[in-house]
Design goal:
Layout: E1 22-23, E2 29-30, E3 48-49, E4 53-57, H1 60-71, H2 91-101, E5 108-114, E6 120-130, E7 135-143, H3 151-167, E8 171-177, H4 181-190, E9 193-204, E10 207-217, H5 221-232, E11 237-238, E12 241-242, H6 246-253
Parallel strand pairs: 7-8
Antiparallel strand pairs: 1-2, 3-4, 4-5, 5-6, 6-7, 8-10, 9-10, 11-12
């Protein structure tokens, strides 16, 4: 997952709490029952509309030009370092890549469209969509300089989370190169729990990737949803600057 930014992130210990609440007839600890479990539907292609942005199914013919222009503001191509593709030398190359790689149903790519300008300014996708087990991942995040560190960026992530949990998914995942400090910081700011490192998880761009895992569970979502909605209210902003951090509202609603 590519995510541009600056600053470090704490290397806190993985979340590893496992409480034994059930045993079988042999006295062995087993997981809690999941009564009346029904696999959720796959995410639809319908747009997700917020106050600041709209997250809509990626259409290369409609979105590529806006995105290419917005990504060009990243003069050093930092956004592409931790993605397994890019940068792209031309709009035609970028659009062709989208047509071949971004039009399937997993990953299910979306464009983030700024509500004020109507321009596409970022990309994110659902992937590893697994209804039978109730988990879904967000990834392929590439927010251009026009979207980075804006309230709309947070709203886009909230909208995608909300759709997943409203469909009935039990687990929402975020993964990134363990060396991608901005992505790790973003995950923790958004409320994901750090779960640890998968060492030598893959190879991309000719180099090793250890993968950091993060997640949010359905049991955590109601409080987190309330925190996002409180943070996103217009009263929490003054000329686009937040008055209180997202973490403040998360603590308030826990």
């Amino acid at each position: 997952m590519g995510r541009a930014g600056t600053g470090g992130v704490s290397r806190r210990q993985p979340y590893n709490e496992t409480v034994m609440t059930q045993t079988n007839e042999l006295g062995q600890p087993i997981g809690d029952p999941v009564p009346d479990w029904s696999p959720p539907s796959r995410p639809s292609l319908a747009a997700m509309a917020g106050r600041l942005c709209r997250v809509e199914h990626l259409d290369p013919d409609r979105h590529a030009e806006d995105l290419f222009e917005a990504n060009a503001l990243d003069k050093e191509n930092r956004n592409w370092t931790y993605l397994p593709y890019g940068p792209f030398a031309s709009l035609n190359e970028y659009r062709e890549w989208m047509h071949t790689q971004c039009t399937g149903d997993d990953p299910l790519f979306h464009a983030v469209v700024d509500a004020a300008s109507g321009q596409a300014v970022g990309v994110a996708s659902y992937l590893r969509i697994t209804p039978a087990s109730g988990f879904i991942e967000v990834g392929h995040i590439n927010f251009s300089p026009r979207l980075q560190r804006t309230p709309a960026a947070t709203e886009a992530m909230y909208l995608m989370m909300a759709r997943a949990f409203e469909l009935g998914y039990r687990r929402y995942e975020w993964k990134c190169d363990a060396l991608n400090e901005p992505s790790r910081a973003a995950a923790q700011r958004l409320g994901f729990s750090y779960e640890g490192i998968f060492r030598q998880a893959t190879i991309y761009k000719g180099r090793n990737r250890d993968t950091a895992w993060f997640s949010i569970l359905d049991s955590e979502w109601p409080a987190m949803k309330a925190a996002f909605e409180s943070w996103l209210t217009p009263d929490n902003f003054d000329d686009g600057r937040q008055k209180r951090k997202l973490g403040y509202f998360r603590k308030t609603h826990l």
